[in-house]
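Researcher: Good morning. I'm working through a list of sequences from a screen, and I'd like to move beyond sequence-only analysis. For each chain I'm collecting a predicted structure so we can compare shapes side by side. This is the next one on the list. No need for commentary yet; just the structure.
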Amino acid sequence: MAGFAALALVLVVISINLTGQCHAALQIGFYDRKCGLNNVESIVTQEVTKKFIKDRTIAAALIRMYFHDCFVKLSVRGYDVIDAAKDAVEAACPGVVSCADIIAMATRDAVSLSRGGRYNVETGRRDGLESLASNVVLPSPQMTVSQSVSVFAKKGFSPKDMVYLLGGHTVGFAHCVFFQDRLYNFQNTGKPDPTMNSTLLQALRFMCPQNSLRNNAVNLDQNPSSSFTVDNSFYKQILLNRGILQIDQELALDSITKDIVKGIATSNDFITKFAEAMVKLGRTEVLTDTQGEIRRSCRSVNNNNNNSNNSFLTKIFP
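Model: Good morning. Structure tokens for this chain:
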């Protein structure tokens, strides 16, 4: 969520009728013995680790990409990691491992490298045959909690699931343009958001001057010792009114979610629950078995007659 943080902070719903509810075909260890003596998951892990050592912000990029599960010309960072992993896997066993599964495995590895624990990834997905940027709907970053709950509910997620998944912001960051209204003209009042911590407000105004062309990036977890760690610090910060995005701060204030946020902030099981939510997300509207394809390149579909150079997108993301 670095240079592309603008879009990382919005809820996206994709309306593509190319996927099916085939959860049963997903399984842990799907690629066991499908790549000779090679361990597919280890190959992916090696590539993600090499990138993470150089740039730990790649964790936020991969988490965001997992929620997207796409390449729809939205300036998403992380392409290079997926490309490298795909190339390495193709060298070991061509035409076997889908880009969708590589994204899921790479995200798990990024979470693990960010001290978020290592969870088991269910695999067996296939890649979609079409996905068009014109199908992408980008709601306002000022979406309310009620609106967000409704969006997630349509995909089978509870309010608690939503709050845990929005915890992906624990390692993310946003650019000024997506929260600047909270600093100077909240809801067209000509004043800042009254819920924002006053010290944070002054710091953000320094980072994001009014009417400036500067578009600096700000950590979504305002605890500097935890900004690159997958943990529950993000929730503790929004309870202190130190949320950067409006939707993040409203999680701690809205009657629907505030008790959930308090529970997560004071518990010791965030890593486990976050992993469970990520696995559940990975089961959402996937292609399996004979549906879809195994892409040769994660940047384009194999069908040369298709004018889309995009991977399929069927998820929502925080």
